[in-house]
Amino acid sequence: MKKILILLALSCLSMGASLATDLFKTTKKIDLRAPSVPLITSDPYLSIWSPYNKLTEGNTEHWTAAEHPLIGAIRVDGQVYRFMGKDNMDLKPIAAMTHFEHWEASYTNVKPSAAWFEPDFDDSSWKKGEAAFGSEGMKRIKTPWKDGDIWIRREIDLSTDISKESLFLKYSHDDEFELYLNGEKLIETGYSWKDDVVLQLSEQTKKNLRKGKNVIAAHCANKAGGAYVDFGLYSKAEVNTNFNKEAIQTALNVMPTQTYYTFTCGAVELDLVFTSPLLMDDLDLISTPISYISYRVRALDKKAHEVQVYIHTSPELAVHQTTQATVSETIAKNGMMYLKTGTIDQAITERIGDNTRIDWGYAYLASDKEGKKNLCLGKAADIKESFIASGKLPRSQQSYTTRAGIEWPIMAYVDNLGMVDGEGKSGYLMLGYDDIYAIEYFHKKKMAYWKHNGAIGIFDAFERAKSNYQSVMNRCRSFDLELISEAENAGGKEYAEICALTYRQTIAAHKLLTDDDGNLLFLSKENHSNGCINTVDLTYPSAPLFLLYNTDLLKGMLTPIFYYSESGRWNKPFPAHDLGTYPIANGQLYGGDMPVEEAGNMILATAAASIIDGNADYAMKHWKTLSIWVEYLAEKGLDPENQLCTDDFAGHLAHNANLSAKAIMAIAAYGEMAKMMGMVETHKQYNNLARTMAKEWEAMAKDGDHYKLAFDKSGSWSQKYNMVWDDIFDWNIFPSQIIKTEIPFYLSKQKKYGLPLDSRMDYTKSDWVIWTACMADNDETFAKFIAPIYKYANETSSRVPMSDWHDTNTGNSINFKARSVVGGYYMKMLKERVKSQSY
């Protein structure tokens, strides 16, 4: 099989103190505590976050919560301070887990007698098997087990007394797990699943260990999904190669394209800036999967100090799971040194699904050859020990192959800044990857936009990013300040900070490419809901951000759905829900249709783009298709049948009043596009139809002091967020008293963490809350809706990239994370731009 690698690139360039000081400090203080902090955000695969208040609290993660570790340390006058990530404890195996060996044990799936965990229990009737134990697809499985319970007894023969040593149990489990050591119960997890948990043994427990036979006994019950058990006994390594001393984090500010940290490291201050240059007016820049990590060090005490900056990562950024074998090597090209790493024998674009990481393409760690910079590929202990002792890296290995994730190498970088005084010295790194082919689009593998069908290679991209560093940093900084200012003017400080947090999340949930005719395709991944690609009811809520900054990207989401219908592959009188499961876009895979929902979404998004563009040229290309869809809405939209809407987690609902409002808005939008094309009679026909339907809607939905969730359910209510277009574009389709009635009613229903979606449950969708809030007729009322959403983001215990679906009582995420729908938060900014006609 063809060898395929994934690339992670950290291209490095040190600089003197000539860089402008303001590149490393933001003038805007952000008070919002991000649920998870965006660090490296390019697309659904290169997406690294820190779900902690402090960057040193734990390792950085992919949005799926799989570790994608970036470890950073600084050595000041011989003292090492860790400023990023958290080292795993240095442990020496006594009875290793399957990272090192497939150990043998006795096991049974039949419930044993009560004394099964005692050292002298007779397990001779049990089966023998090698670890790990679990279901297919889990890591390092040797003995299959999926359903029900498993009881395991592992004998450990100790030739010496180890009770004086620091001892640790390490274990992984899925689901309910209990563990005993020589009859003493040490672990009971309840319903959970975790990997590589470390538990230090107490002095009392260590006394129970004996020379000769010892038994670790474990029971695991699989309640759902995958099953897994692995455990071992360890002592503390003789040589400590961890970066134990933490830098003191003094500042964190999350801006739209940049995240700023500041640390005190002994006698110096370290500024650290993560930049993902997602500037939507530059398609090459936004589509190139390269981010910058910039750093500056300055003395705090008017003295000079010897300083080295260290950063490392591992092949974990290049695999879907740690069972995959990897190969790494050193490359020199055009005055740069690269460390290259990736998986072996993984097919391009073949891994599909939601909770997945990329495992094809190439990854690089790179540096120029100037100054006292160095790169090293090798064992973590060797590299870190050398840096701690001397501030230098050992000699790099030329190649390094792993066996199923065992003995990962690390890819390390050191910048020896030399003597650093109050003026400071600085540098930067670039992190990125080349996915070779990004998407399969109607049975053809397609490259990402930045490659221009193979004319540009990854080395070209890194060299361009290096050359443009200064200008890109300045552009990002200016853009961020302008966006924050505009958002604050539109909706206040709290609103602006929410927008800053979600900018990168929205864009990085997409991949940009072109079809065979050169049309832009901007394909979303439906992160953490089902993994669909180009889902229409993700496009719709995310639209405000792209209407603000580049309608071509919005049209890049619409074009594939139009093509799907116009090619004859989809022949229903309403749009498809999606094009498949990411990264395969060959046709809808979602189990059910959303006829009124998706027809309304496509028409409204097309109309909004036309209005912002000032012409209906794009709509004209697809007028025949739009006309089929609007006729469907004219027939079926007023009183929808029992069907799903975008809030499909709430289930099917007939006579859905908010869905009906969407259909009416879409019919009006179709008329507005006709007007832009000079089709006067068509405009009049559909405008009148929408107004007539709106009056019927009011009569069916009115329920005293509010309007119903469903026309046949008195006493119910729901957010009518789909009416927001009527307000933004001044179409005046619905009588004004509807929203004037609804807004105060909604305020009476608000909970601690926001307005519930409707009367059925206390959860909400925060994107829809903001759309609803936009219909308030004054800023003070708007702020009343925003405050609980801000409070949710600031206080939630769900430390994930912003979840758009949460419980309004507890502030916990129900589900969903890292989704593009948070682009809908920008609706208030869009409204203000449209009202001022500054688009």
Topology diagram in text:
Layout: E1 9-15, E2 37-41, E3 47-50, E4 61-62, E5 71-76, E6 79-84, E7 91-95, E8 104-108, E9 127-130, E10 133-134, E11 143-144, E12 148-158, E13 167-174, E14 176-181, E15 184-188, E16 193-200, H1 203-207, E17 212-222, E18 228-236, E19 248-254, E20 258-265, E21 268-275, H2 283-287, E22 290-299, E23 305-313, E24 326-333, E25 336-343, E26 362-368, E27 373-379, H3 380-390, E28 399-401, E29 409-420, E30 425-434, E31 439-441, E32 444-446, H4 458-467, H5 469-491, H6 493-507, E33 510-514, E34 520-524, H7 536-549, H8 551-566, E35 584-585, H9 595-613, H10 617-621, H11 623-636, H12 657-676, H13 680-701, H14 724-728, H15 737-749, E36 763-765, H16 766-773, H17 779-795, E37 805-807, E38 813-815, H18 827-836
Parallel strand pairs: 1-26, 10-11, 31-35
Antiparallel strand pairs: 1-30, 2-3, 3-4, 5-6, 5-23, 7-18, 8-9, 8-12, 10-18, 12-17, 13-16, 13-18, 14-15, 14-17, 19-20, 20-21, 21-22, 22-30, 23-29, 24-25, 24-28, 25-26, 26-30, 27-29, 31-32, 33-34, 36-37, 37-38
Helix pairs in contact: 5-6, 5-18, 7-8, 7-9, 7-18, 8-9, 9-11, 9-12, 11-12, 12-13, 16-17
